[in-house]
Amino acid sequence: MKNYVCNVCGYIYNPDEGDPSNGVKPGTAFESVPEDWVCPLCGAGKSEFSEE
Hints:
The chain is mainly beta. Helix content is 0%, strand content 15%. β1 and β2 (12-13) form a beta hairpin. It is globular and about 25 Å long. The mean pLDDT is 98.
C-alpha cells in the first residue's frame, strides 16, 4: 500500500497507521478511505491528496 500526501499542508497518510482518531482503521488503503474523510491537519478533501 502506498502513502499519499496532502497537496495543501504536506500531511502524509500512511495506510499502515490509518487515521484512527477520524474513524480510519490501521491497514486501510487510501483508496478505501471514505470519500468524506478530510486531512486531519488542514481539512482538505481526499481529492487534494496525491500518491507519494
